[in-house]
Each structure stands twice: as structure tokens, then as C-alpha cells.
Amino acid sequence: xxxxxxxxxxxxxxTFAIISHPDAGKTTLTEKLLLYGGAINLAGSVKGKxxxxxxxxDWMEIEKQRGISVTSSVLQFxxxxxxxxxxxxxxxxxxxEDTYRTLxxxxxxxxxxxASKGVENQTRKLFKVCVMRGIPIFTxxxxxxxxxxxxxxxxxxxxxxxxxxxxxxxxxxGSGKGFKGVYDREKNxxxxxxxxxxxxxxxxxxxxxxxxxxxxxxxxxNYNNLMDDIELLDGAGTEFDIELVRNxxxxxxxxxxxxxxxxxxxxxxxxxxxxxxxxxxxxxxDVIDPLNNKFSAFVFKIQANMNKAHRDRLSFMRICSGKFxxxxxxxxxQSGRKMRLSQPQQMMAQEREIVDTAYAGDIIGVFDPxxxxxxxxxxxxxxxxxxxxxxxxxPEHFExxxxxxxxxxxxxVKGTTQIAQEGAIQIFTxxxxxxxxxxxxxxxxxxxxxxxxxxxxxxxxxxxxxxxxYSYIRWIENDVGEDFELDxxxxxxxxxxxxDIRENYLLIxxxxxxIQWALDKNPKLTLSEFGKxx
Length: 534
Ligand code: G4P
Prior knowledge:
The chain is α+β, with helices and mostly antiparallel strands.
């Protein structure tokens, strides 16, 4: 009985990350999806539109000020018999590492593109990260009610820039003022669009593509163009292959207008048809089946001080198998500690709800007493598995940072350490240098601003930042002190020896050329691009 219920629940789950360039319409699309699930009464009403137009799911002040989404949040809604988890991601490539971690917790991704802009510069890296993960990617081309790029050009751009094949599930008829709707390739129907000004919900009629009604709805010229497009699509286009979709090699493309809620439901239906419930996950040699009745999860995100009203640190976990029950005993594998996950929560925009049960595929946030690190495994005590870690990206920008006021040292150390534990920055110290000042490494420069802002607002500590010329990092693999002495190293004057928070030694370089130089001059030296784990 229990197993049947578990299977039932898990098979309903769909967990996806949503990713877009800022302003492409991710928030609007998310709101419309929630609307279908009845999770909110009226899209856009979660927050007053003008007062905080950026997201129902943005938490941090800085996000509102800059209009970017820095952290990711999680929303859950039900649609039909499905239970859908949406993981929001930062909309700027400076936070691609955060996006990558979120993608680790997702089974598929939805990429929102602005139809007039296609793949934008700032998001190229972000979308590539998505392709790198090898999970199914669904593309929603938004804002067809505005003048758009030629859809064939747009798809070619996706293929060339991101290296993933495209398959249009539907195809737009005109755009902007001349937007007439979309053609559904499988059903062979036209879903016609009738706008009612700005953000009002559009009216949609469905009719057979060969009917007079369809011809009348879209007009003769559009109809003839559509016939040419269909011929092109059927003739030269890629074959649809669900296996390629599931391996992230082919992205189904949907066209629509989130603002007027046109094309959102067909998108949701198509998405649900093509995605699978949670799939097994690797834990070293073990393959963990979601239907395994023992609970297991991994931490993919840690976020402190999310809300000033709740001064706390939450760890977000993706459940990989079994059922979570409130107050159950679990094992935190990395520390070997048995514990209870206290006050497990699920998010609905800014509201948090305590959950009593959750299943494989779901995301829960738990209070973190400061023991979790990103990638950690939590499972039933008799399970003893360890999920494969989440790789860290090598930082490409470095600054030396210290507290402006030396009396704020304590806040400075606490703040930088906690923010580093969240994985938002990496911190390094100079050997024997102490913690008075640290070298901060980041993947994208905006992360420095987030650090400065958060240290000021969450820890009450102003900082002084000094740019450093380094852009490459390598960990020293040799056992320092054993058969290897740092003093013996021959390095260029612009190469620096530092330590990470686990006290591993590493070198930071200003150029790739210097890395090779160091290896040539020090035959015993072995370097690695990735940090040593525990
Ligand atoms: P993001 O989360 O990806 O950053 O984008 P968001 O949904 O906030 O949308 C960015 C802007 O684009 C918003 O306008 C939104 O109303 C508009 N938008 C979203 N989808 C569509 C669409 O399908 N068609 C058109 N024409 N516009 C769309 P804004 O003026 O920046 O904000 P607001 O004042 O309307 O809230």
C-alpha cells in the first residue's frame, strides 16, 4: 500500500528550472503558469505591479534595485494530477555558477527567449551552462505580440550559439501588430490570437489549418506565408526524437506571449507530455531510484538572511528518493551526524509553509545550524550513500577585501565565511596572512557587489575593495611540507601563493602563460584545475 502511494506521488512530480535573460519574461511566464495551477489568484497580484515589478520570487533588496535576479527560489503548484516544482534562476551570467547548481536540482530546464532578441550576449554563458548539464531543455519564445526576429533565424541562432538542435512544436504566424497566432504542427491546427491591448488576456480560437475559418482568422497573406513555412519545416527541419529531447540534444520550441497569456497552456501541456517524473541519480557506484522507499536528498543551495524578518540560514535540498516526513531522523553523511530536519519549508513566493511530507522530486528548505555545505547528502540513517558532488567553477576575477573599520573584524570574518559557505564567493588567504584581509575570487564581477551589499546590510560591515590582476587559479596537488616546500617554488613575480578555506594551497596567475612557466620551472609541481574536496 505504502509503496503504491509513494509511486503515485513521485510519478506526479515534475521539477524544472526556468532560465532567461533579464526582461525576457521569465517572471511573467512563471506567474501565468502558477495561475493555471490556481496557486495565486491573479498573476501579478502577488506584489503590486508598480511597487515591485521584478518578481514574486525575488528576495533580496539588491535584486530589486538592479532589476536582476541574484538568488534562486522555488515554487510549487499543481496542474491537473501533476505536482510541479519551478526553480527560479538568476538572470545574469555573472551568476552562472548558481544557475548550474540549481540545474543540478532540476530534471529539466525551460529557457525563455525574447522573440525580438534571441540569444543575448549576457545570457549566452548562462544558457550554455544549461546545455552542459545534459538535461531536457524546453524553449519558450516570448513576446510574439511585439515585432520579432524571423523564427527560422532565431532557431538557427539557438543551434549555432548553444549547440543544441531545435524542433518547433508550434510556429508563429506573424508578429507584433501582425501577430495572428501559432500553428500547431502535431494537431495541424491554427490557434489564432486576438489581442485586446497591452497586458489583457488574448482570445484564442483553434481551427483546422485547412479550414476556411483558419484562413479567415489569419488573413490570405499570412495564410500563404504559413503554407510556405510549413513546407519548409516539414521539408528541411529536424525530425522529432523524444530520446534526443531527454538527453538535452534537441530542444522543443514553443512560441507565445506570456503577457497576454497566449500559448502558455499549450506550452505547459506539451512540456508535461514530454518530461518524465524524477529519474535515478548517481551516488558513486550506486544508482538511487526515486522509488526507493528510503529518503535521500542533497543540498544544492544555501541562503542566509533571506528575509530580514527571519534572520536565519536555509539549506535547500532536492529530494532524490523516497518520502520526507517532518521530524524524521536523518543522517548528514558528510559529518556523520544524525539529526532532525527542523521546520522543513516549501516556498510560495515570499510565503513559507511548513511541510509535513514531501517526495522525490520536491525541494525543501530546512533550517541550517551551519553544518551543511553545497553538495552534501542527507538520507535515512541506514542508507549511507553519498551523492556525486556539485563542481565549483574556477573564479576568474579577484579582489583584496578588508573591513573599513578594524573594530568590525568579527562581523567581517563571519560575513565573508558565511557567504563563502553559501557558494556565492570563494575566499582565499595568504599563508600566515590571517583573516584581516582576504582575497575574494568570483566567476562574475557582479558577485563582488553582492558581497559588498550583503556585508553592509546583513553584517553591518563596510569594506574596502582593491582589484587584483589575477584571472587563473590552480590547486597545488603536492603534499606541501612532506616532500614539497613552497619556499623552493620558482614563480614569476605576479604569481601568488594562497590558501582556500580548507587550507589547501593554490596558485593564482595573471595569465595562462604563467601557469606553463611555473610547471616548466618546477618539474615536481602538480597543479589541478579543481579544488580538492573534503
Ligand atoms: P524577467 O523575469 O525575465 O526579467 O521578465 P519579466 O517577466 O519581468 O518581464 C519583463 C517585461 O516584459 C515586463 O514589462 C513584462 O510585462 C514584459 N513582458 C513579459 N512578457 C511579455 C509578452 O509576452 N509581451 C510583451 N509585450 N511584454 C511582455 P515591464 O514594462 O518591464 O514591466 P511592467 O511594468 O509591465 O511590470
